Structures are given as structure tokens and as C-alpha cells.
């Protein structure tokens, strides 16, 4: 049994699985249930400043279903906590006291002025929590009020607010980044400059999950109208992985601890985030889809996989994939693969042929013998090794991409004869 | 010849005895697992006698944590491998799967269970560890599903176990009784080896209770005793000529199917099976697979009253067995001491719900007759000792499998309840937990 305990930016937890700041973490009742189920930590649902709480609409959520599977993608038009600040603070203190070994991070979002951050930090510190997470990511509702993504899209604001927080509290400061920006390295660098102890990403992505064609309005629909909402769930994972890798590779931020978020459903999703450098991971949609009990397999599956690979701690493989993430320009243009079809496994659906024929390189010949038996043969000279046929083939391991031993040396675009800007 | 060996060539027999369900391949398992809704408080779990966390193990298959899935199964049911193949799922877990309501087709839980356990057994790693040695020593009588399940759990809990088994092999009916086409590839023997892999269990073969050992002695020598004797007697028809050539107890012949070369078994042209349960179906189907021409399974009541499920009846029918109902045997006819025909009387249910003969008879020509009208528990092995209380022909136990004797537990077919492998495994597990509490 591997040791799954994790430590990130001074925050420890028995396993790297935290619930992200969202409805699963918005009150004592459910956070305690989550801890009972085995979650390593939580980021409490974002708190706002004292005074009358925000008001939420109904309905709030939308889903992208795909081929009979629900919630491949999920969106929401909810705001931060709609409960009074003091109620939340009291509950946070009570839960932390009862569960001292679990990570308790408190998410915050207040207006962009120093006094407001100073005040809330003083109150939050009294709960005994382990860290704060600055929510610069909420893409709807709060940004219209100059908070959330409105701050997260302006690196200088991130730097300044982070700096204030570092001045007014000794707690570790996590900065949660919005993906609604073209270069994720800019806000990460700004957080780093402001003294952030870690970044958390991604928050949700601007989205309309669907349009109701009867009432001609986006979903979720509120009294006949809809607004763009925050997109999350399995569909956003590739975007999150890419953004995490950008920060992990950036010379300015590669030391900055990362809490990875976005579409984590199974243990191997989490392992991928960790392989790209994350010290902990956060989950929201999967918990909202099935309940807290998914933690069983997250922990058990990660454990069994780590045992099978001989990793005894999270640190043993954390960041192991980063050295292999590079820029396109450094990829070896002399490396060649071609498709190879295992005729014994082929079920004769013809998908590989038609996709290559219509949309790729006309490299799979289709033929039919006198008995009507179809066969599909790769024309090696035409195949460019794009993988498309392998990806569409419904049978596992039927089409494989085989490396061609061409004996050619490593050659990237920089040195390629076709490159007009080639350095001699 | 009316009875002969090797009616079919060896290859055909082999083909006839392949697995009832081919194992799922990885793609099938993935897609089937994706059908499971991961229900909360899932009805399938309630319907599994051993309470396996079915949604939990299926989710683990989905995530690619297949060994973890197998362990989830085996934690509750150490014979989860066999049960995956032999449980009447159509009246257990799969019967109540919520997908029956939404899609008229349950998740094939049993086959997914096989996928996971096969995966683990291929590597034959024993996933469980023993607790620190307790210094206690427990006797288990009978190495069937009940006894072995009890022994494994006791070993896990740190106790030492001695198993006394009258036969030369362990496994009970897993080894000697279940249909061959459910238990291919030495499944029973491999499972026994896997169970013993935990350590701390010693089997003494060919040691019979009531002959080589007595319950009184065991109670003196050991800290606790578990009895898992199974059925020890076969019900008779009570007709003349039951000892004639060609008349068999189905269970004896089934034992030969499991233990002998299939081409060496005597197979009739015209075969009659009497009974309506599992055993009747199993003998009818297997004798058909061995090459019998006409196989009639005759039952005294209607199809609904049969012990065999609708699905099992269907297996018999698709294998060419003719099921006749409302007929009870009245005479066994012989020629030169050999079976020649079985005579039946049609029956009907009277206004008081009793089964009565109609007075109208018919005969079926037969060169083999298999009696499969039930097995029972014969307490003879206990009779030389202080005997636990017996009620309605079975050892009486409470919900913790405790008998009326203070340090004796019992479970499986020798106690009341459905006679199923999975029930026996659960009895053994419950008894072990109770013994553990008692010895604390
Ligand atoms: C033909 C047939 C088909 C079946 N098919 C199915 C099926 O498909 N699915 C299903 O769930 N169930 C099936 N069953 C029922 C299932 O096999 C039993 O319920 C189960 O095996 C009971 O387990 P057990 O441990 O109580 O008894 P057994 O399996 O009978 O084991 C008892 C053990 O005790 C030993 N023993 C007996 N007497 C003594 C003694 N005096 N001293 C020492 N040892 C002794 C025996 O040799 C045996 O090893 C079938 C039964 C039969 C007969
Ligand atoms: C209904 C809902 C409410 C959310 N509220 C917050 C919030 O208050 N603060 C915050 O930082 N993120 C919030 N999020 C974003 C999540 O914390 C998380 O970053 C995002 O959902 C991506 O993770 P996932 O793909 O596992 O869901 C919310 C997400 C959802 C679905
Ligand atoms: S790899 Fe691409 S080009 Fe080659 S055969 Fe497949 S689809 Fe065609
Ligand atoms: S042990 Fe039998 S009843 Fe229980 S889940 Fe498995 S197949 Fe179903
Ligand atoms: S009832 Fe069916 S769908 Fe629900 S958990 Fe059980 S197997 Fe899955």
C-alpha cells in the first residue's frame, strides 16, 4: 500500500483528493459527510464580505449529455455562498476542530480593495483553517460586480490582491485562476509575483450548454431567459491539463505549487494532473454527479496503480511527465509511424477506411472478396501516421501505430530544409 | 446399444461443455460497466446474499481498477469467482437491477463479477492479510463453500483452522456437484488453492465426522467448531426396482461427470429425469450434452412450482430437454433386471390445493433413470455425540449461525435456507465473525 498523504504549500492532508469550492463544500453538514466518506480536504464554498448574502436564481445548472451518458459537461449560473458570513465561519471552525487531519482551505471573494481583504482575512484566520484560496475565477454574476473573473483576467489586480493577502495573513495563500484568458501563464506569474504560495486551476469556462429550441433560450433557463454559465466536468479536463502544464513548465512559475482542478472523475485523471506537477487535486462535478462515495475508488485505484508502478509516495511520480511536455517546434520531424491493422481483430465496420479516404490521406484500401468479406489494408507509402483510423476503430488494439525504423537522426523545424528561417 | 460410452466424439463433447456464458472481453466489460448507474442504496446489493458492494465494484471496473474490483467482491464473498458463474442471478442481484425498469435488461452483474475475479486470479495474488495470531484453533467440518468460507475468514482474523473433509478433494459441491459447463478449467480446485493461500488453514482429507472423529472430541480439542456437512442423503422415490441397472441418483452421476473422463461415462438413448430443481436441470442438460437422444424431465407439479428458475428451464429446453409436468412416477419397469420404462400417473391439484393422481397413466421408455427429487441432511455423523438441535431435518441455527451447543456453529445446506453456493458462503462468513466475537 502506497502512502497517499500529500503536502502542498504547507497544507497537509491524508490523501490528495480535495473537494473543490462549490456546493459539495458549502456547509458543515455536507463537509462532515465528505470527511466521513474519506476525502482528504475541502476548499469551502467561496465566502463573500459581511452583509446581506448574494441571491441565487432558479434554475441553476445545465448538462451536456453524450450518447446516453449524463453530464459529460456541466455548467452553472450559481454565485458564491448565499449564507451569512458568520454562519459559514462558525461551521468552518467547528469542522476543522472535529477533523484536524483534513485540509481546510477557505475560498474568498470580496471587492477589489485592500480594506475589504484585510477585514475578511482577520475573520477567517480565527476559524483555524489551513489556508485561503482567492477566487479570481467565477465567470458569471460576480465578475459583473468587479470580482471573480473580472480580477482574474487582469494580472496586475491578481498581483496586488495576492500581495495584500500576504500582508494581512500568515496563512498560505492559494490563488484560483480562471481559464477564461488566452495565456494562463500571465495570471500565474502575477500570482507568483504577489507572493502566492500556490495556484489552483481551473475554475469554470464561459459556456452555453445548449439552446432550448422550443422557447429559443439558452439552458438553464430562468423565466424564459438564460445567461452564459461556468462549464466544468470531464469535458474540460484536457483544457485544465494543458493549462497546468503551461504553468509547471514556465521558468518563472515552475516552482509554484499547483492544486489541479477540472473534470477529475477517476483516479487516473488525478494521476495525470499529478504527473503534470500538481500537489493536490480538487473535484466538484464528479461528486455532484454521484455523491461523496466516489472517494473509495479514487483512493483505492490510485493506490493500486501506484503499487503496480512501484511508486510509494505521491512525490515519486509528481511532475514525472513535465520533462516530456515540449513545444511543437522541438518535436522530431524525422520520427515516423504508420498504421497497422490486425486483420484477426477487424470486425469489418469500414470506419478506418472512410475517415482516411474522406478526411485524411487515402491510405486505407477497402476491398471485398467474392464471399462479401471486407478487408482493409494500409498503403504504407501513403500513410502519414496521423492516428485518425486508430482513434475511430471500435476494437481495442485492432489498429496500432507502429514506429518505422528509418534510421534518420532527430530533426526539428528549426533545422528543417523547408523552414525559410532555418538556422544553418 | 441402449447404453453406451462415447456416444459423441471427444471433440463434440468438449464443445458441448464450454462455458455457459463466454467470458466478457475488455470492451464488453467496459460497456456493460458503463450501463451501471452506480445507484445509491442499490437494490442489487440487498439482493446479493453476501451483500457485495456491486455498484462499487462495477465503478472500479470502469476506472480500470480491476484488481480493486475483485477485492471488493472477495471481501464479502471469498467464492465470488464461482458465484459469478453459478448464482441464479435472475432471482438474486440481476432480478432487482433498476435497469430492468428503464431498459428491460439488467446489468449483467454476474458476468462483470467474473471479469473482475478472473483478472485477479490470473495473477493468483492473495489480496488479504492475516491479523496477528490469536492463539485460537478452530475445527471446521466439511470443506464445501460454507466450511471454506468460514475457514478463510477465521484465518484472516488471525485464528488457526483445521478442516476435516471426508473426501479426497476440497470444494464440496463446487468440485463434485455444480454443472461442468459452469465450472470449466479446474475452477473449483484453483479457487480452493487461492483460499488456502491466506495461510493458517490445514485440511485433513478423508477424515469423516462420525467415523474418524466425533463432535464431542472436536469440542474438547478446539476452541470452537463449525459444521458445514452439506446434504448427506438423497431422497428416494419409494418404488420397487430402484436398485435396477440403469437407475441412478442424479448427484452420484453428476459427481462422475465432474471427476471422470466425459467419454467414459455410460449414456442412454432414452433418458428420464425425475425432479424439478437445479439438480434435475443439471443432469438433464448434461446427459443431453453427452449424447443422449431423448431426455425427458418429469415433474409432478407445474412449471411455476419448480425449484429451477425460468431461466434454468429455458437452458434445459434450448438444449433439447423435454419438460413434462403434472406427472408422478408410479412404477419402474425392468427387463432382465435392467430398466426398460418408467410409468407415470397424471396429476392435478384438487380444490384443497393438494396434489392428487388422476388415475390416468403413461409410460416412457427408458434405459437410464435419474432421480433428482432432492437431497437432505442426515444427522448420522453427529449421533455418537451430544447433538445440536435439529428442526425440520436441518441443524437449527440463529442469525449468527450459532447452534444450540455453546461452542458449535453450522451453516450451508445442513442448515435451513436456500440451498445455494452463495448462501453457504455467507453462512460461513457470518459464523466466522460470530466465532471471532465469541473467542475475544
Ligand atoms: C447438482 C447440483 C447443482 C447445483 N447447482 C447450483 C447452482 O448452479 N448454483 C448454486 O448457487 N447452487 C447450486 N447447488 C447448490 C450448492 O452446490 C450448495 O448449496 C452448496 O454447495 C452448499 O455448500 P455446503 O458447504 O453447505 O455443502 P457442500 O458443498 O455439500 O459441502 C459439504 C462438504 O462436507 C463434506 N462432508 C460431508 N459429510 C462429511 C463428514 N461426515 N465428515 C467430513 N466431511 C463431510 C463433503 O464431502 C463436502 O466437501 C447445486 C447443488 C447440486 C447438488
Ligand atoms: C455549481 C458550481 C458552483 C461553483 N461554485 C464555485 C465557487 O463558489 N467558488 C469557486 O472557486 N469555484 C466554484 N465552482 C468551480 C469548481 O470549484 C471547480 O473549479 C470546477 O467545477 C471544475 O472542477 P470539476 O470539473 O471537477 O467540476 C463551482 C462549480 C460548480 C459546478
Ligand atoms: S494513420 Fe491516418 S493516414 Fe494513416 S491510415 Fe490511418 S487515417 Fe490514414
Ligand atoms: S454473489 Fe451472486 S448474487 Fe451476489 S452479486 Fe455476485 S452473482 Fe449476484
Ligand atoms: S441496480 Fe443495476 S444499475 Fe443500479 S447499482 Fe445495481 S447493477 Fe448498477
Compact description:
Chain A is α/β, with parallel strands linked by helices. Chain A has twelve helices and 20 strands. The longest helix of chain A has 15 residues.
Could you walk me through the main structural features you see in this protein, from its secondary elements to its overall organization?
With 424 residues, chain A is of the alpha/beta class. Chain A contains twelve helices and 20 strands. Chain A has two domains: 6-324, TIM Barrel (Alpha-Beta Barrel); 330-415, 2-Layer Sandwich (Alpha-Beta Plaits), CATH 3.30.70. Chain A has helices spanning 28-37, 85-98, 114-125, 149-152, 155-168, 185-193, 237-249, 267-275, 285-290, 295-309, 351-359, 388-392, and strands at residues 6-8, 11-13, 17-19, 41-47, 61-66, 69-76, 103-108, 131-135, 173-176, 198-201, 205-207, 210-212, 217-219, 229-232, 258-261, 278-283, 337-341, 364-368, 374-378, 399-403. In chain A, helix 3 packs across helix 5 (155-168). Chain A is globular. Chain A starts with 5 loop residues before the first strand and ends in a 21-residue tail after the last strand. Chain B is of the alpha/beta class and 440 residues long. Chain B has three domains: 22-123, Fumarate Reductase Iron-sulfur Protein, Chain B, domain 2 (Orthogonal Bundle); 137-232 and 377-439, FAD/NAD(P)-binding domain, CATH 3.50.50; 235-374, 3-Layer(bba) Sandwich (FAD/NAD(P)-binding domain), CATH 3.50.50. Chain B contains 16 helices and 19 strands. In chain B, the strands form six sheets. Chain B has a five-stranded parallel sheet with strand order 4-3-2-5-19, with helices on both faces. A five-stranded parallel sheet of chain B has the order 7-15-9-10-11. In chain B, strand 10 (294-298), helix 15 and strand 11 form a beta-alpha-beta unit. In chain B, helix 2 (26-35) packs across helix 4, helix 4 (54-63) crosses helix 8 (109-123) and helix 13 (250-259) crosses helix 14 (278-289). The mean pLDDT of chain B is 96. Bound molecules: flavin-adenine dinucleotide, flavin mononucleotide (FMN) and iron/sulfur cluster (SF4) (3 copies).
